[in-house]
Design goal:
Elements lengths: L1 H26 L1 E7 L4 H16 L3 E7 L4 H10 L9 E4 L2 E4 L10 E2 L4 E3 L2 H12 L8 H4 L8 H4 L3 H8 L1 H4 L6 H25 L2 H9 L3 H13 L2 H14 L5 H61 L11 H15 L9 H18 L1 H4 L1 H13 L3 H15 L1 H13 L7 H24 L8
Parallel strand pairs: 1-2, 4-6
Antiparallel strand pairs: 1-3, 3-4, 5-6
Helix pairs in contact: 7-9, 9-20, 11-17, 11-18, 12-13, 12-14, 12-19, 13-15, 13-17, 13-18, 13-19, 13-20, 14-15
Length: 454
């Protein structure tokens, strides 16, 4: 009898030990989530991780912003022999996920990114497997499927620019002077920007992010590079050069030197942006949110300065070329084209002089051309890692950037007459560039997570 009791006690202890071991396994669900404050995909995943942590007390999620926990972040990568430093990066036991998407079901491993492609389904499954039981997402599951809002309560900000534009019929007779027309047009641009940000404030954030995530990244790069290409500084110098070339009465010289100037500008811009991207990628990892705020403030200020020039040109500080600089470039261009129309002219020297002029111009205007590329670099380093990706996208950016300059060249070759940028054209260029800068600057300050595309 005594032996039977001992056997029962031993069996009971084994069973209890098994339950205790299982309970210990369930309590050992630890997840490390590394993110960056300026990374839009991290903001997307943050909602999921917070929902898991809030609804599952047996799961411990360690949230680490890489600029604040840089040493821990690097040690995690080094311990697992991971070279790719992109975020969001999620560690669930021995499984690592890179990136995040709401959609997607298949568990897919990426050799270049050294991790499984992160998506909502697979991250939840990995945590459930490590925990040994299902996890709850609470209200997050429904919030992630936020439908398109309807009704005037949401969409009324769109009425602001419509009503403002309709006012043109009433005030048209009073817009007799150029200054009044500029004031009215500036008000229209302002109403568009204000209405857009009011709409962002009213729309549910999951809906906004799902819409933005669906936009293709090439479209974003094309749009911002084209806006950057409408650069009054480069326009002015190219027009000066081409206007002088019309006196040589040679379309060949105009095409050759004009193309040389544009190509030089593209190469200089590529080098400049690559330096920004490489430096930005290094510092954004460490001081992401601070840099985003500083860049947003600088870009917003530059946008306001350009918009100021639309109303009050040549008054106060400006980001454009001064009259003295324009005169200096005009003299340099004049020396380049001098004698080209004469027999025995040395075209090679003119090409070399044009290259030097292009380098000089781009060095002078770096202060105002750095604005929109700063927006581009923040999106690039949050999406890609590696010199090949940086170089490819930056080359595409620079090709789009020179499209307006190529259009000016083709127009000059076709018309073949001396033309200057008028003051009104310069003002409109300033307003266009200023509106883009103001829009993206405000996004970087208040909604950096929306700088996410496809």
């Amino acid at each position: 009898m005594r032996g039977i009791m001992q056997s029962v006690l031993i069996a009971l202890m084994v069973v209890l030990a098994g339950f205790g071991h299982a309970a210990g396994d369930r309590q050992g669900g630890e997840v490390y989530f590394f993110y960056s404050s300026n990374c839009p995909h991290c903001h997307r995943q943050m909602g999921l991780m917070q929902a898991i942590a809030a609804n599952n007390p047996e799961v411990t999620i360690h949230f680490h912003e890489i600029s604040k926990s840089f040493a821990l972040w690097r040690s995690f990568l080094e311990d697992r022999s991971i070279d790719y430093g992109g975020v969001p990066r999620t560690f669930v036991g021995e499984t690592t996920f890179i990136g995040y998407a709401e959609t997607g079901v298949a568990l897919t491993y990426s050799e270049p990114l050294q991790g499984y492609l992160g998506n909502r389904v697979q991250i939840v499954k990995a945590i459930e497997k490590a925990l040994g039981q299902p996890v709850s997402l609470g209200s997050y599951a429904e919030a992630a499927e936020t439908p398109l809002p309807r009704g005037l309560k949401i969409w009324w900000p769109l009425l602001l620019p419509v009503l403002y534009a309709a006012s043109f019929v009433v005030v048209r007779s009073r817009l007799v002077s150029g200054e009044r027309k500029r004031l009215w047009l500036g008000g229209l641009i302002a109403s568009l920007i204000v209405s857009f940000f009011l709409l962002l404030a009213l729309l549910p954030e999951p809906f906004i992010q799902s819409v933005v995530q669906g936009l293709p990244y090439p479209l974003f790069v094309f749009t911002i590079a084209l806006a950057d290409g409408f650069n009054p500084c480069a326009f002015t110098v190219l027009v000066i050069l081409l206007s002088l070339l019309t006196y040589t009465k040679s379309r060949r010289d105009m095409v050759l030197l004009g193309t040389t100037f544009i190509a030089t500008s593209a190469v200089m811009y590529f080098v400049f942006i690559m330096i920004l991207v490489l430096l930005g990628g290094f510092f954004l990892d460490r001081y992401g949110r601070v840099i985003m705020l500083l860049l947003g403030t600088a870009i917003t200020g530059a946008g306001l300065l350009n918009i100021k020039d639309f109303f009050f040109l040549k008054k106060g500080f400006s980001l454009g070329l001064s009259e003295e600089q324009q005169l200096r470039f005009s003299k340099k261009a004049s020396r380049i084209v001098k004698g080209l129309g004469r027999p025995g002219a040395r075209l090679g020297l003119a090409v070399g002089g044009t290259i030097m002029l292009g380098i000089f111009v781009n060095l002078v205007e770096l202060g105002c051309t750095a604005i929109l590329p700063a927006v581009y670099l923040t999106t690039l380093v949050s999406r890609y890692d590696g010199l090949a990706a940086y170089s490819g996208w930056t080359a595409f950016y620079c090709l789009v950037y020179i499209l307006p300059l190529l259009a000016i060249l083709l127009n000059f070759v076709y018309v073949f007459k001396s033309v200057r940028l008028t003051e009104n054209q310069g003002r409109l260029l300033k307003l266009t560039a200023g509106a883009f800068m103001l829009f993206f600057g405000l996004l970087m300050i208040f909604k950096p997570e929306l700088l996410a595309f496809g």
